[in-house]
Write a structure and sequence with these properties.
mainly alpha, single chain
């Protein structure tokens, strides 16, 4: 029996309008599923940028995710960074164009849908369908966020101390009211001292 060959990933060149339009189309098609926030689609973003188009490695994806989360602004900011990462090797102009195009593609359709829904949502204030819809979204959102957390653990933790830190932080977040900023500060200090590496 022959061992399976690993899938060799060749990055797609973005110095072509057809590839740029393909990126825009991918993010446009995902936009309506991102209504719960940019993090709800993190697994799909990883699949597109690492597995399908091979723009980034998993480690680079984790770095971009950390940068997007650390910066002020919406969590969908990761899409602009992914778009920029996809095309920056073609030159800074292509990088900026791809980043801005990807960000607009992910934000525009979902924003227009949310504005339309908000304008009519108050009319359904006492309707049973609104109450059922809102109650049903809670468990769905928690499940998606749990899946996102697992995805980030898989792509960013690569040694035993990092897994241990992640497990301890998860337990403390669930059991205490300690601010997440303290956890980020301690994890940053551990990384800065070289005690935890990715």
């Amino acid at each position: 029996m022959t061992p399976l060959l690993a899938h060799v990933c060749t990055p797609q060149s973005m110095g072509d309008w057809r590839h740029l339009l393909a990126v825009i189309w991918d993010f446009l098609s995902l936009s309506l599923f991102s209504l719960g926030g940019g993090n709800t689609l993190l697994s799909e973003y990883h699949h597109l940028s690492v597995d399908q188009y091979c723009w980034l490695s998993s480690r680079q994806f984790a770095d971009i995710y950390a940068l997007a989360e650390a910066a002020p602004g919406p969590s969908s900011m990761i899409v602009g960074l992914l778009g920029m990462g996809a095309a920056v090797q073609e030159g800074p102009l292509w990088g900026v164009l791809s980043g801005v195009s990807a960000e607009l593609a992910i934000l525009l359709p979902s924003t227009l849908l949310m504005v339309a829904a908000s304008l009519s949502w108050n009319r359904l204030r006492d309707a049973p369908i609104r109450v059922a819809f809102e109650r049903g979204l809670g468990p769905i959102t928690l499940g998606i966020l749990f899946a996102v957390g697992l995805k980030i653990l898989r792509i960013s933790d690569h040694d035993t101390p990092a897994y241990a830190v992640s497990a301890v932080v998860c337990v403390l977040m669930l059991r205490t009211k300690i601010s997440p900023l303290w956890f980020m500060a301690v994890a940053g200090l551990l990384g800065g001292l070289g005690l935890v590496n990715r």
